[in-house]
Amino acid sequence: MSIQNREAFLNKLAENLGRSRRTEGVERPKWSVSPQWEVFKGATQDELVDVLEEQCKAIHTDFQKTSTADLENVLRETIERYEGNAIIAADDERNAEYQLDTYYQQLEAEGVEVHIWDAEKGKENQVFAERADVGITFSDATLAESGTVTLFNNKGNGRSISLLPKTYIAIIPKSTIVPRITQAARHIHEANQQGHEVSSCVSFITGPSNSADIEMNLIVGVHGPTKVTYIVVEDK
Amino acid sequence: MSIRIGTNSFEHRVQEGIKNDFMRGAVSSAQGRFRSGRLKAAEELGNWEDWRTLGEEIRNHTMENLDFYLQQLSDQVSKRGGNVFFAETAEEANDYIQNVIKKKNGKKVVKSKSMVTEEIGLNEALEEAGSEVVETDLGEWILQLDEDPPSHIVTPALHKNKEQIRETFAAKKGYDKTDKPEELALFAREQLRKDFLSADIGITGCNFAVAESGAVTLVTNEGNARLVTSLPDTQISVMGMERLVPTWEDLEVLVSLLTRSAVGQKLTSYVTSLTGTRLEGEVDGPEEFHLVIVDNGRSKILGTEFQSALHCIRCAACINACPVYRHVGGHSYGSIYPGPIGAVLTPLLDGYDDHKELPYASTLCAACTEACPVKIPLHEHLIRHRQIIVERENKAPKAEKLAMKGFAKWGSSPAAYKMSTKMARTALKPWTKEEKIENGPGPMKAWTDVRDFPAPSKQSFRSWYKTRKKGDEA
Description:
The complex is a heterodimer of chains A (236) and B (474). With 236 residues, chain A is of the alpha/beta class. Chain A has 7 helices and 13 strands. In chain A, strand 6 (141-143) and strand 7 form a beta hairpin. Chain A is globular and about 70 Å long. Chain B folds into 2 domains: 32-299, NagB/RpiA/CoA transferase-like (Rossmann fold), CATH 3.40.50.10420; 398-467, no CATH class. Chain B is built from 21 helices and 13 strands. In chain B, a hairpin with a 4-residue loop joins strand 5 (208-210) and strand 6. In chain B, helix 2 crosses helix 12, helix 3 packs across helix 12 (248-263) and helix 15 runs parallel beside helix 17 (378-393).
């Protein structure tokens, strides 16, 4: 695609920096310190789950822990609590792995509207998401320190699922939990270097939407979901 | 709007700010909360100074190689189906964006909060060209309805109280509920949803672009920026040319510094990294993407002693630490960039002529420098600005010039100096009450209008020094 006015613009920068243009050969130096790698260094997976649970209190997010066998029940309770009559979920291969496919079919049989994201249906997905009570996705990387789920949005996991419905449920396979954003960023950095295309939208989501724009009062729930539940599942 | 707000003089703006009791109360309580949030978030990490050093090193390296990283960024964006436009001036940026909207036959534009688009006056330019522009950040929406400029770069409507906001919603949008913040926010959610769903163009700023992959990262809490970039078919992101990092590994460090320094959060609710257009088969996201990279005076700062001012990541920690901002509020600065960083940056971007007072709107206490997560020596830049104004530009404020002239004359004669220090107490006696001057004359008036000034001591320092005995603590 087009790039306009670049040469004159960058030549001027080089000139002001007092040197000729650098178009190649710039290496990032080794930084003198690396405090980001010290955070929860050497923590076990169970310790990280505890950190995540604690952080959920600070970010107004409900925290649940369960096994694969019991996931269905925890999900059912949460959906009932959110008065979910219309539900949208990502089209994810983990739906089968965690037996959610059968659970969603069962929900439909019980009269709940369930929409699994379908790229073929185009904007219809957004229209459904807009009126849905609950959006459900898996977390691709979970950051214990900040209480963040990371989504590599793609054609099966539309950005709208975690955004437009009133409430949001993230299913967190325990193995996806890392100490902090540092580990997720390195993963993306290395994948990019190996020539893998970075997702068109990487969403780091930390609890429900909020604002402090009116007299600095924290308002939980603005444009994005107003309530969020994380469900950590023992997957290994 | 441009970087400059209004046409009133600095003194007038300060007077307005000081008289506004609600604003002063709100600013001071906000500063307290922001500050304790930031300190707590920094403390939790334990080695905050290492983090600051790392932030400074990354910013320094990026600025020293800005041409290289901007080239890499634009190549990557282009590879992912995006168009890149390098704009030297605000006009060039606005013209380009107008043209994109015209070509798309765009009617409604939804925007997420962006300081650089305030700086270039984008909204006015688009409205002139016939577009409907809706600000969707809660604070910005309030200000847009009320036609008021922002007073803080993180919480732009800090100077307004909830009663005023309720009145604005009622007058402009027919709101009929209470002034409870939750109800006001819910109303904004309902109203703005319609705009998101019907908009054809989404415009965002950019907290950090990532050169290695072409991602534009937005750091937000409300979710409006995600809506702006998920629903409309065309997305335009506008970035100041210095707002980028080399790699994802550097991104996470600066995002961590930003969210902790700005609001004391480990991460904000949403950190969203967007690359190019939506991919094949994807429904959400734009089918057309434009990245506009803006100079607008920044390149003049490169290669100068002020270069580190470009390291700013717009967290507002310096603003929240500043005792002068606390008293006069954001609008006093007459710039969309208030506080210490505003006082450094505004004269650099817009010249000294209209902003010569700003470097003096500081006590040089260095609280700003200490708060800055990327170690910009803000108070040193302010001192340097003052030197330049005095030496080269000869634009020191009148009162100071007069005072300095007088001081030079009197101070050069020991006898005259001695006499004047003795006289001060007698001369100021009519205004002295319980060792305080509450309503001083002449040049003291501006000071004593808002606070007391201690009366000169009964004994001058020189006479005390002369008569003091060894070990005397008086």
